[in-house]
């Protein structure tokens, strides 16, 4: 038995493998939840009745007119719920509410023979509301003292002492915009009853076990009576960790009440209107530096906009607090976190899970303060890097802190940073109306669920008599390539070619009690479980093979026999250590093992060792390790309009020893562009007026909420993975890659800040709103032009529709 | 009642019980062809893209061959494609026999979640089969215009592998069935008269027949491309009692030049206009790539863009700058209305019941100095916060003639008449432009909304005139300008 991280000399891990579903993707034959409905007879379609108020009491709900609409079969209301009328795990998300908490909140659902009939039926449901006062912005919630969940404080040292020692003290405020997931596949669920009355739900969910639990509690059934399957998702990004449960429960409720299959698919407007987003944040901060620009103290209050219910807002805030240090050692820290309760969608997980917001606060501070300290921002950042032996404010030693300096130095060289900095300065000196900016920023991101119990996973591996392998695991595939990596892990462990390994869809009746595929942990956890299952099978096969090989060996070379530990599995061949010439095929060993009545399947399990976390004290060892990275971005800004181009990006990122380099490269690039979208383009705007549409999301369609397209891709995009980066204690020495690259995009924002500042006098603090849309950049560069006298700048309040 | 027939992936299919508002996408998916997806239902994401075989070249020079064009199936009403041939991602290849586009995309990591992928495959295939694509065009080794993919959104990859796949494509092999089909005539959209309990859908065969229909049904919805109406149908659930599709009428598909003007048929889609003008109207050549996406331009028409009369439509600012007129046709005959007089209020025009836009006339000669600026959050395929079209003639350093068309700053597209007056007869200098820019900043009545604040819109009016000067003055022309 080898340790978790060790790789055999030959194996499928580490190969640049194509996504296992790629041929299905490109031919349209890969199926998603909503593609399955057309294959079912008697399908019913669901449509919601949405609240037209941000906050109101439902005073009347009469579904009977809907039943007059041709094709309408049933209207689902609270009275139909046999179990618990709640779509969440905290009991604060009624599935059928009597008090609507946000504009678009669904009060009931109509089932009909066609989508059209369901929609017309929903329009016919008689509803009356008594509007109640609403809170739409974070500021309104703060003023009203409207908070939810636990308030927590991350503390180390004594900030008073830190500020007393500081040569420079700065203070500021910062608003961070939210982000819509805009997975291309909207939320969808399809439910039917099988012949035994068992409820079978297909759901686009990152957390099938929780979808199962919630559907079961709504239906008043035990978990064993409900099965949830997820073939694949058309993107998740965290948006399908908690949000799909209610929709799956509606479909399941409809199926149990009508006996017919029920399909529920949100269209894009419904999905954006009804489902949670990345939390907007508000931060106030005070920071102290010594005379050399060394951070001494940070005092801050982070307020997230949690929306109407708690959802995952508490762990999101915990992760924000645990990432406000990013890559920097700050001796004295006191950061408060609180969650505003507003009349908006319930904000939820989104790639990075609060980490991006926490990191953006410190990076914004450093970007703003560097000119006032008389330092280049990149120099200020480097000076404050964690050094080996230092610990985070929550008490966890920063494992491999030396990688920060290493990545930084390598990337400065690879990107030709100092020469290009000179070029940018020269360009800016020659151009009045267009300026460039160049910036480098680091990422340090903690890997593991902050919620310790989630750091476990299961797998079920079958070896059939013919030597073919079928694997099941608890993780879900949303495009991140988890299934591809799991096939590689299984093939490597069993020593068979990856073509011999098939992967069965994620189902709760195969692997139970799974954790969400989230926190970038899918490959670490499920890979550990699959490896465990494969090792068990391999050990049994090794015993069989040792006997057979000993017999064969005696016949040939009269050896003393083969110890099972010395049997090697490689490329579908099984042979004694040092004697590949004596090899048997994997199939032959499996065949022999079957006839010797050997168990050819195994359940695998993995729990991340060494984790502990005291949520109240915000202290402990919540992360198994840290993922590191750094990026350099160069932008060009048009001084007339604030429009910008991303001219070049260089990234160096640490994925440990990559399990699957093509997949990991895709995660790094995709995460970066998604982060750049969040920081420069994507803008959520709600109606904050006192008018009749107060609380309505104004950017609830693809035409008003803009994602990065081809034109936002960097013109030159160089991405490299850190070499010789084995992470011991993780499956085959790899590291998680889903979330950390998103925060590499902070360098784009910092480059925009540099470019804006170049329109004004040197060494002035440059503020920049987030997202840094062309309009925000225009106002920022105008402030620079006016000599950074902010009060003169004409920045309007967010306008009404 | 006519039968509705569509050829899908080489198989003729008769549509039974067709309804006038069923989209091509929903019908395909109901047929089990679920490769095309609904990502947004408004032509923004391209997950629904399909290929349609269209006649190559203009009808004047004969039927010609076939051109494979990508369109948004979510915006196309099924009756509108009666008689046409559609190919979906499933029809291009299978997992066991991948199409070259599919192979490149798969091998280079161009798919992650895969949901947008069939749409990308289709848009890439259209460009792969584009007649006349050759190496070096569009700064690409294989002539692949990457902007052909600007109407396809991917949330996973960051696009780099998709671009690499596009640039790795060779030319179609000998015997490639889709390449071969380019030599054969494409089946045109066939006339149709569909009467259903949910409404009527007509594709008349001639202009007189269309005008007769419109005279009989003055409240009929006129369909000319349908990229706006499709959004209304999908997102706002609009339904029309009678729909009359006019984009295939031969009388609306002409483009011809006279001494006095160039006349562009209102039923030509923007891609066709772009090809047929071939750069001869520089302002339009600059403008086309900034109008939505290739997927939309393959359906959208000038008639449709002007017919909807949106204050943020992209064509009015340039057409106002070009001093265009509209030829309006009705049973009573044609009349010509200057575009500047066409808009009467928010989404209101002088168009009378029973009347339709037959063509757009752009007077000749063209002004020598022109520019189009569009301010939006995203560089391509976004709706403008502010759009400005400029056409100017200088004589001996003095502004002899200038027209400024503005979009997004009033209830209708407008001419910046006061700014024009401030420029006319003045020397083309920094001083003049500074003064005029202050006037420009006060044009219209810009509002604040989710796209931009009122203050930013007003600022942009002034800034865009300054930008125009920077790009079109001896001093400013040296400076490379971002955007």
TrEMBL record, chain A:
Keywords: 2Fe-2S, Iron, Iron-sulfur, Metal-binding, Oxidoreductase
Any Pfam family matching the protein: MoCoBD_1
Entry's family note: Belongs to the xanthine dehydrogenase family.
Gene Ontology MF annotations: 2 iron, 2 sulfur cluster binding; iron ion binding; molybdenum ion binding; xanthine dehydrogenase activity
Enzyme superclass (EC): oxidoreductase
UniProt gene name: xdhB
Protein name as catalogued: Xanthine dehydrogenase molybdopterin binding subunit
NCBIfam families listed in its UniProt record: xanthine_xdhB
Automatic annotation (TrEMBL), chain B:
SMART domains: CO_deh_flav_C
Residue span of region Disordered: 169-198
InterPro entries: 2Fe-2S-bd (IPR002888), 2Fe-2S-bd_dom_sf (IPR036884), 2Fe-2S_ferredoxin-like_sf (IPR036010), 2Fe-2S_ferredoxin-type (IPR001041), 2Fe2S_fd_BS (IPR006058), Beta-grasp_dom_sf (IPR012675), CO_DH_flav_C (IPR005107), CO_DH_flav_C_dom_sf (IPR036683)
One family name in Pfam for this protein: FAD_binding_5
Membrane-spanning residues: none
Domain FAD-binding PCMH-type as annotated: residue spans: 194-367
Residue ranges annotated for the 2Fe-2S ferredoxin-type domain, each copy included: 2-92
Protease recorded as keyword: no
GO molecular function: 2 iron, 2 sulfur cluster binding; FAD binding; metal ion binding; oxidoreductase activity
Keyword set, alphabetical order: FAD, Flavoprotein, Iron, Metal-binding, Oxidoreductase
Top-level taxon of origin: Bacteria
Entry protein name: Xanthine dehydrogenase small subunit
Protein's organism: Deinococcus cavernae
């Amino acid at each position: 038995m080898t340790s978790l991280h060790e790789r055999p000399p030959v194996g499928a891990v580490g190969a640049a493998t194509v996504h296992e579903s790629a041929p299905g993707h490109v031919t349209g034959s890969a199926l998603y939840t909503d593609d399955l409905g057309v294959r079912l007879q008697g399908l019913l379609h669901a449509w919601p009745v949405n609240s037209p108020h941000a906050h109101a009491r439902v005073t009347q709900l009469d579904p009977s007119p809907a039943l007059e609409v041709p094709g309408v079969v049933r209207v689902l209301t609270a009275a139909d719920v046999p179990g618990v009328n709640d779509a969440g795990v905290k009991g604060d998300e009624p599935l059928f509410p009597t008090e609507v908490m946000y504009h678009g909140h669904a009060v009931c659902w109509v089932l009909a023979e066609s989508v059209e009939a369901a929609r017309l039926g929903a329009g016919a449901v008689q509803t009356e509301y008594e509007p109640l006062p609403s809170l739409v912005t974070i500021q309104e919630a703060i003023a009203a003292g409207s908070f939810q969940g636990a308030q927590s404080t991350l503390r180390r040292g004594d900030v008073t002492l830190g500020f007393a020692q500081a040569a420079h003290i700065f203070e500021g405020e910062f608003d961070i915009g939210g982000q819509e997931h805009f997975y291309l596949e909207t939320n969808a669920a399809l439910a039917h009853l099988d012949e035994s009355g068992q409820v079978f739900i297909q759901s686009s969910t990152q957390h099938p076990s929780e979808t199962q639990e919630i559907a079961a509690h709504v239906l008043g059934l035990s978990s064993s009576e409900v099965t949830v399957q997820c073939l694949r998702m058309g993107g998740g990004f965290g948006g399908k960790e908690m949000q799909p449960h209610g929709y799956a429960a509606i479909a399941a409720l409809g199926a149990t009440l009508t006996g017919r299959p029920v399909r529920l698919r949100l269209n894009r407007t419904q999905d954006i209107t009804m489902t949670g987003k990345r939390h907007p944040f508000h931060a106030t901060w005070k920071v102290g530096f010594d005379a050399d620009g060394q951070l001494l103290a940070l005092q801050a209050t982070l307020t997230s906009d949690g929306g109407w219910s708690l959802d995952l807002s508490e762990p999101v805030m915990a992760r924000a607090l645990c990432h406000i240090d990013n890559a920097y050692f700050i001796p004295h820290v006191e950061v408060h976190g609180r969650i505003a309760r507003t009349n908006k969608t319930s904000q939820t997980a989104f790639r990075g899970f609060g980490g991006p917001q926490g990191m953006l606060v410190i990076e914004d501070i450093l970007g703003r303060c560097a000119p006032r300290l008389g330092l280049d921002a990149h120099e200020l950042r480097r000076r404050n890097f964690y050094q080996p032996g230092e610990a985070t404010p929550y008490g966890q030693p920063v494992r491999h802190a030396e990688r920060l300096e290493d990545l930084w130095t390598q990337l400065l060289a690879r990107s030709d940073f100092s020469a290009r900095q000179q070029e940018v300065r020269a360009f800016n000196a020659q151009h009045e109306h267009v300026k460039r900016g160049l910036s480098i920023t680091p990422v340090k991101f903690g890997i593991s669920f902050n919620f310790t119990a989630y750091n476990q996973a299961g797998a079920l591996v079958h070896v059939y008599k013919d030597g073919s392998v079928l694997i099941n695991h608890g993780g879900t595939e949303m495009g991140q390539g988890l299934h591809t990596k799991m096939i590689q892990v299984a093939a490597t462990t069993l020593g068979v070619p990856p073509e011999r390994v098939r992967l069965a869809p994620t189902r709760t009746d195969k692997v139970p009690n799974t954790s969400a595929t989230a926190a970038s942990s899918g490959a670490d956890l499920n890979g550990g479980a699959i490896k465990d299952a494969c090792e068990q099978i391999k050990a049994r096969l090794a015993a069989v093979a040792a006997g057979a090989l000993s017999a064969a060996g005696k016949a040939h070379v009269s050896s003393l026999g083969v110890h099972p530990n010395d049997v090697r599995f490689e490329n579908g061949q099984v042979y004694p250590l040092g004697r590949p010439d004596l090899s048997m095929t994997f199939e032959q060993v499996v065949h022999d093992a079957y006839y010797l009545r050997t168990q050819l399947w195994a359940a695998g399990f993995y729990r991340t060792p060494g984790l502990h976390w005291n949520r109240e004290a915000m202290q402990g060892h919540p992360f198994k390790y840290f993922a590191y990275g750094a990026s350099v971005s160069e932008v060009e800004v048009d001084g007339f309009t604030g429009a910008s181009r991303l001219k070049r990006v260089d990234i160096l990122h640490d994925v440990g020893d990559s399990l699957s380099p093509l997949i990991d490269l895709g995660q790094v690039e995709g995460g970066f562009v998604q982060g750049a979208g969040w920081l420069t383009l994507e803008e959520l705007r709600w109606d904050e007026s006192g008018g009749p549409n107060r609380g309505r999301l104004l950017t609830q369609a693809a035409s008003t909420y803009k994602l990065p397209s081809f034109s936002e891709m960097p013109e030159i995009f160089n991405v490299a993975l850190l070499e010789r980066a084995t992470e011991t204690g993780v499956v085959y020495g790899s590291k998680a890659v889903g979330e950390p690259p998103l925060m590499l995009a902070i360098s784009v924002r910092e480059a925009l800040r540099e470019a804006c500042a170049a329109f004004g006098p040197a060494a002035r603090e440059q503020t920049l709103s987030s997202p840094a849309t062309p309009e925000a950049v225009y106002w920022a560069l105008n402030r620079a032009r006016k000599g950074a006298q902010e009060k003169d700048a004409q920045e309007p309040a967010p306008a009404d529709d | 009642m006519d039968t509705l027939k569509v050829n899908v992936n080489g198989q003729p299919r008769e549509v039974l019980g067709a309804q006038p508002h069923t989209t091509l996408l929903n019908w395909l998916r109901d047929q089990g062809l679920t490769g095309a997806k609904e990502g947004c239902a408004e032509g923004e994401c391209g997950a629904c893209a399909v290929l349609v075989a269209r006649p190559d070249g203009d009808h004047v020079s004969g039927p010609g061959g076939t051109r494979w064009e990508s369109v948004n199936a979510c915006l196309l009403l099924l009756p509108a494609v009666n008689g046409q041939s559609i190919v979906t991602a499933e029809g291009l290849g299978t997992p066991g026999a991948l199409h070259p586009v599919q192979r490149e995309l798969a091998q280079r990591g161009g798919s992650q979640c895969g949901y947008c992928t069939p749409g990308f495959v289709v848009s890439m295939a259209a460009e792969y089969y584009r007649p006349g694509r050759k190496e070096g065009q569009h700064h690409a080794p294989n002539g692949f215009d990457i902007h052909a993919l600007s109407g396809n959104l991917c949330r996973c990859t960051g696009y780099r592998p998709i671009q690499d796949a596009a640039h790795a494509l060779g030319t179609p092999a000998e015997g490639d069935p889709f390449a071969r089909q380019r030599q054969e005539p494409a089946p045109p959209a066939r006339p149709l008269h569909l009467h259903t309990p949910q409404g009527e859908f007509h594709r008349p065969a001639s202009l007189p027949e269309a005008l007769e229909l419109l005279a009989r049904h003055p409240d009929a919805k006129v369909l000319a491309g349908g990229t706006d109406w499709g959004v209304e149908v999908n997102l706002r659930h609009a339904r029309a009692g009678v729909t009359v599709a006019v984009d295939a009428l031969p009388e609306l598909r002409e483009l011809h030049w006279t001494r006095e003007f160039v006349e562009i048929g209102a039923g030509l889609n923007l891609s066709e206009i772009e090809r047929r003008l071939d750069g001869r109207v520089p302002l339009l050549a600059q403008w086309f790539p900034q109008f939505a996406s290739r997927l939309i331009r393959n359906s959208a028409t000038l008639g449709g863009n002007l017919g909807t009369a949106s204050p943020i439509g992209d064509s009015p600012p340039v057409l106002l700058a070009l001093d265009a007129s509209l030829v309006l046709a009705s049973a009573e005959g044609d009349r010509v209305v200057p575009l500047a007089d066409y808009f009467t209020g928010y989404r209101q025009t002088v168009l009378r019941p029973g009347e339709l836009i037959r063509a757009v006339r752009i007077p000749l000669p063209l002004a020598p100095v022109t520019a189009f600026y569009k301010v939006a959050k995203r560089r391509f395929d976004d709706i403008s916060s502010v759009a400005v079209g400029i056409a100017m003639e200088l004589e001996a350093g003095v502004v002899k003639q200038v027209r400024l068309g503005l979009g997004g700053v009033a209830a209708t597209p407008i001419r910046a008449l006061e700014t024009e007056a401030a420029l006319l007869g003045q020397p083309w200098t920094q001083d003049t432009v500074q003064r005029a820019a202050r006037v420009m900043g006060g044009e219209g009545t810009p509002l604040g909304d989710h796209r931009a604040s009122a203050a930013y819109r007003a600022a942009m009016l002034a800034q865009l005139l300054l930008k125009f000067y920077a790009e079109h003055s001896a001093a400013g022309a040296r400076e490379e300008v971002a955007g």
